[in-house]
């Protein structure tokens, strides 16, 4: 199980060196745990709407992205403390073998995105493979 940095956070320079991206991006707090044969991913996304979230599956990677709007403050404000992240985010999680992303279910409630990924079903019955004759 691995939380991967996304291309949003790092860019490669002409010399091949990695640098932070040009815009401000953030990574939401994430819990990943297993219970009763299901991998659970819980992402803290307070202040967002369900329709502002996008989940994409590529192979064994789950990408969670979106944008938290910052429309509640004046443009002339001067921060004394700023701990809440706004703007675009992207989080990529590599799912370990043995889980079936095609059967994943996601729900967003009270500022938390929860994704349940069941274990892949393993067949225990024998299968007879036909052998053809090459002529």
Q: What is the terminal-to-terminal distance?
A: 47 Å
Q: Class by helix and strand content?
A: mainly beta
The general outline is elongated
- Fraction of residues in H or I helices: under 10%
Contiguous runs where pLDDT drops below 50 for at least 5 residues: 6-14
Question: What Rg do the Cα atoms give?
Answer: 20 Å
User: How many individual β-strands?
Assistant: 10
> SSE order, as H and E?
EEEEEEEEEE
Mean pLDDT: 81
Major beta sheet, strand line-up? 1-8-7-6
Query: Proportion of β residues?
Result: 35-45%
Largest sheet: 4 strands, antiparallel
Tally the helices: what do you get? Answer: 0
Textual characterization of the structure:
This protein has 135 residues and is an all-beta fold. Helices cover 0% and strands 41% of the residues. It is built from no helices and ten strands. Strands 1-8-7-6 form a four-stranded antiparallel beta sheet, with no helix packed on it. Strands 4-5-10-9 form a four-stranded antiparallel beta sheet, with no helix packed on it. A two-stranded antiparallel sheet has the order 2-3. The protein is elongated. Mean pLDDT is 81; it is low at 6-14.
Summary, kept brief:
This protein has 135 residues and is mainly beta.
Keywords:
four-stranded antiparallel β-sheet, single chain, 135 residues, mainly beta, 0% helix
Please write out the topology:
Elements: E1 2-4, E2 10-12, E3 18-20, E4 30-35, E5 38-44, E6 53-58, E7 61-68, E8 87-94, E9 105-109, E10 112-118
Antiparallel strand pairs: 1-8, 2-3, 4-5, 5-10, 6-7, 7-8, 9-10
């Amino acid at each position: 199980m691995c939380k991967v940095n996304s291309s949003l956070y790092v860019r490669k320079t002409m010399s091949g060196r990695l640098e932070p991206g040009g815009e401000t991006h953030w990574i939401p707090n994430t819990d990943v745990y297993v219970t009763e044969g299901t991998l659970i991913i819980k992402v803290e996304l307070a202040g967002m709407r369900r329709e502002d979230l996008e989940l994409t599956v590529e192979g064994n990677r789950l990408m969670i992205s979106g944008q938290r709007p910052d429309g509640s403050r004046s443009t002339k404000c001067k921060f004394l403390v700023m701990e809440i992240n706004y703007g675009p985010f992207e989080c990529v999680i590599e799912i370990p073998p043995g889980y079936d992303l095609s059967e994943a279910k996601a729900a967003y409630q009270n500022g938390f995105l929860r994704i349940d990924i069941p274990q892949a079903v393993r067949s225990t019955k024998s299968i007879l493979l036909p052998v053809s004759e090459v002529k």
